[in-house]
Amino acid sequence: TLPPGIRLTSTGLLQGTPFEVATRSLYEFVIRASDGVVIADRSFSLQVQGADAPSFTTAAGQLDLSDSTRVGNKWVLDGSYIEYQIQATDTDTAAGQTLVYDIKQGSLPPGVTMSTTGLISGTVELTEDERYGVYGGWDNAYGYDDVTYDPTARTKSRSQNYEFIVRVSDGSNTVEQVNSIFVYT
Fold first, then answer.
1. Which end of the chain has the least Cβ crowding within 10 Å, N or C?
2. Around Cβ 141, how many Cβ atoms within 10 Å?
3. pLDDT band for position 68 (50/70/90)?
């Protein structure tokens, strides 16, 4: 058989563009030629290269987390819910492959995860500032017990940029890019 998308004309010319294939595919076929009296057969093979590498359509660098209330916002407040789709394209997906995303290196803000479909979502938790550590105090919130002043523990939060490497794979090839989310406290 000929590769899908290729046809043989009556003059013996192969025409067309082969369809995408998930993996390199070998097509073997026989062409018969005749002048009306003499018949001749010849075997041929044609290889179609597969597994093109995916490419990101989401720009590298700081993610634009804007919504209808914050146009062009390149940062997020801690305590906010975020939902952002990392996107890539690959012509091989037409041949049955799917794209799988993961974080190769670095980290997302605490409370935020990325699915294998590239969806970054979650409620951004506070980033504790280790420079000051946990500090304590006393309050008078629980006057009903034997201890008038109960101990409390508090921490300070800080702004931080979270840089991470996103990897996308079509099962054969992988591509990586660096992105980041800035959390403002």
1. N
2. 9
3. very low
